[in-house]
């Protein structure tokens, strides 16, 4: 799948570059802090890397899982970026660099010990983390570490070119947002 990651992320960065530039400029104008959000995440073989996204929360927000953040910390502009998943586009750079895949378990924070332990137990760290995957399609977040790790392990066990494409397509169509959760596809 690495060859698909390289081709698709490279093409995505080229094709989306006008949008990336516009979002960067608008973010600079409409919210405080640097437009890009850099955060340490745990990747393949438990190596820590710097994940890059567009900033959606106020700069003073602590480095915790999204499910632990007060919703008021998400800016109005950030809500739009999240709803459209545009905030995730800079991660194409992480994919191109080989730190991530387009499809894989979402990379966790180093302080999410329960999730790290479950992922260690199930061998989830044997693969690159991804921008999207089965857990995201099913609306499972990091607040349920055991379920998340089990879903990640199931995705890894059943990964195929078909599922790789399916997860990308379903994510692009909006699956995994609150309005789609629980409507099928495993």
Which SSEs are present, and which pair or pack?
Blueprint: H1 2-30, E1 36-42, E2 48-54, H2 76-84, H3 91-97, E3 101-103, H4 113-122, E4 130-132, H5 134-137, H6 145-157, H7 161-172
Give an account of the 3D structure.
- It is a single chain.
- With 186 residues, the chain is mostly helical.
- The protein has 7 helices and 4 strands, in the order H-E-E-H-H-E-H-E-H-H-H.
- It has helices at 2-30, 76-84, 91-97, 113-122, 134-137, 145-157, 161-172; strands spanning 36-42, 48-54, 101-103, 130-132.
- A hairpin with a 5-residue loop joins strand 1 (36-42) and strand 2.
- Helix 1 (2-30) packs antiparallel against helix 3.
- It is globular and about 45 Å long.
- The protein starts with a helix and ends in a 14-residue tail after the last helix.
From the helix content, strand content and strand pairing, which structural class follows? mainly alpha
In the predicted model, the low-confidence regions spanning at least 5 consecutive residues are 178-186
Cα separation of the termini:
20 Å
Radius of gyration: 16 Å
Strand order of the largest sheet: 1-2
Mean pLDDT: 89
Order of secondary-structure elements: HEEHHEHEHHH
What percentage of amino acids are in beta strands?
A: 5-15%
The biggest beta sheet reads: 2 strands, antiparallel
State the helix count: 7
Care to count the β-strands? 4
What key phrases describe this protein's structure?
two-stranded antiparallel sheet, two-stranded parallel sheet, 186 residues, 4 strands, mainly alpha, 11% strand
């Amino acid at each position: 799948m690495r060859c698909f990651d390289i081709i698709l992320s490279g093409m995505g960065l080229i094709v989306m570059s006008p949008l990336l530039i516009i979002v960067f400029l608008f973010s600079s104008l409409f919210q405080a802090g640097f437009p890009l959000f850099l955060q340490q995440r745990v990747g393949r073989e438990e190596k820590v890397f710097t994940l890059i996204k567009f900033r959606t929360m106020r700069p003073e927000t602590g480095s915790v899982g999204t499910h632990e953040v007060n919703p008021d910390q998400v800016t109005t502009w950030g809500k739009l970026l999240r709803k459209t998943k545009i905030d995730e586009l800079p991660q194409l750079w992480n994919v191109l660099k080989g730190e991530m895949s387009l499809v894989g378990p979402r990379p966790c924070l180093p302080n999410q010990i329960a999730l790290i332990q479950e992922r260690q137990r199930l061998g989830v760290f044997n693969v690159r983390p991804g921008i999207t995957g089965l857990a995201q399609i099913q609306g499972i977040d990091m607040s349920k570490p055991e379920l998340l790790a089990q879903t990640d392990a199931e995705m890894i066990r059943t990964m195929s070119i078909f599922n790789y494409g399916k997860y990308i397509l379903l994510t692009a169509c909006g699956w995994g947002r609150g309005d789609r959760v629980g409507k099928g596809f495993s």
